[in-house]
TrEMBL record:
SUPFAM superfamilies: Formate/glycerate dehydrogenase catalytic domain-like (SSF52283), NAD(P)-binding Rossmann-fold domains (SSF51735)
Molecular function (Gene Ontology), one example: NAD binding
D-isomer specific 2-hydroxyacid dehydrogenase catalytic domain location: 19-326
Enzyme Commission code(s) on record: 1.1.1.95
Stated name of the protein: D-3-phosphoglycerate dehydrogenase
D-isomer specific 2-hydroxyacid dehydrogenase NAD-binding domain sequence ranges: 123-298
Keywords attached to this entry: NAD, Oxidoreductase
Organism of derivation: Rhizobium soli
A Pfam family the protein falls into: 2-Hacid_dh_C
Signal peptide positions (record): none
Family: Belongs to the D-isomer specific 2-hydroxyacid dehydrogenase family.
Coiled coil: none
Class of this enzyme: oxidoreductase
InterPro entries linked to this entry: D-2-hydroxyacid_DH (IPR050857), D-isomer_2_OHA_DH_cat_dom (IPR006139), D-isomer_DH_CS (IPR029753), D-isomer_DH_NAD-bd (IPR006140), NAD(P)-bd_dom_sf (IPR036291)
Length: 338
């Protein structure tokens, strides 16, 4: 693979180069970058950091667009020409922000690019859990017919608690309300935003949990939110409640969740992200038919993929053209690094 990339360099026609930590990005973004004198090269997702670092060094990249895999200090320091890192999305827990800051390299997020997509996926998972779609599907396919004894749950009037009220949380709240759910929000960094939108708020997640039918996570992974939903907090939930995490793995303690599902302390859970990605094939969570797992694709739709790539490309172009990085999009070293 490295040979192929070096060949690509030999045929490069433009004055600047970026590396994308994936096999592809939207064609519109590639055309935009090419039009601004930037060649685009690709590094397969989840390749080891030392392999990605060698590619960055061999290419002498000016910019890095991050999709998947860990971007650590070795990758960030590999090319002396590197001036900007742009995330193809908004979560930056796979980037060593502190290492980038030490080298004066801004890390920029594609803010708002996938809010609608992640909110849609969240609601799809919520409804699948409440309506017990997965257990019913498996029962019928295994030859059972639970119709005589099954009584479904209503989502009309169900209370959904959102931890985090950024762009995704706001979209999720609106969708949940339109379906007849009661929404309550806990976000210490946006105490007035949810109330301004007409939603109830809670200053304390512990106080909120016992009343919830659904808990949905929409906060970033930071030192403060790692293991935010642990055994103690899972025990505070109704045993009829369900949990959805379309934010970041590590916010929900997976071992504690497995124990809660085994004990019947929660009725079900849906995870679109995991502490280690891809998760292990023997993950204890796989034992439960009340657990829905999707491969961190909540924000990946045709529309959001175009938006994420184009916004990331615009950040790269702007910085390489000598402009100051967009202040609203900068990931600060105070956030959790990889």
């Amino acid at each position: 693979m490295i040979h192929d990339i070096i060949q690509g360099v030999e045929h490069g026609r433009r004055g600047r180069r970026i590396l994308v930590s994936h096999n592809q990005i939207a064609e519109k973004a590639i055309r935009l970058l090419n039009a601004h004198d930037i060649d685009v090269f690709f590094s397969p997702p989840y390749d080891p950091s030392d392999v990605v670092a060698k590619r960055a060094a061999d290419l002498k990249i000016d910019g890095l667009m991050v999709r998947q895999g860990r971007i650590d200090e070795a990758v960030i320091s590999a090319s002396p020409n590197l001036k900007v890192i742009a995330k193809h999305g908004v979560g930056v827990d796979n980037v060593d922000i502190a290492a980038a800051a030490k080298l004066g390299i801004p890390v920029l997020r594609a803010m708002g690019s996938n809010s609608r997509a992640v909110a849609e996926h969240t609601i799809a998972l919520v409804l699948s859990l409440i309506k017990e779609i997965l257990p019913l599907d498996r029962a019928v396919k295994s030859g059972e017919w639970p119709k005589p004894t099954f009584i479904g749950k209503d989502f009309l009037g169900a209370t959904i608690g959102l931890v985090g009220y950024g762009g995704i949380g706001r979209e999720t709240a609106r969708m949940a309300e339109s379906l007849g759910m009661e929404v309550v929000v806990c976000d210490p960094f946006a105490p007035d935003a949810a109330e301004a939108d007409g939603f109830a708020t809670s200053d304390d997640i512990d106080a909120m949990l016992p009343a919830l039918d659904i808990l949905s996570i929409h906060c970033p992974l930071t030192a403060a939110t790692r293991d935010l939903i642990d055994a103690r907090r899972l025990a505070m939930m109704k045993n009829s409640a369900v949990l959805v995490n379309t934010a970041r793995g590590g916010i929900v303690n997976e071992a504690a969740l497995a124990e809660a599902l085994a004990a019947g302390n929660v009725a079900g859970a849906a995870l679109d992200s995991f502490a280690t990605e891809p998760p292990a094939v023997d993950n204890p969570l796989w034992a439960f038919n009340t657990l829905i797992a999707t491969p961190h694709i909540g924000g990946v739709t045709y529309g959001s993929a175009d938006a994420m790539a184009i916004i990331a490309a615009q950040h790269i172009i702007s910085v390489l053209d000598g402009n100051a990085p967009d202040e609203r999009s900068i990931a600060r070293p105070t956030e959790l690094s990889a």
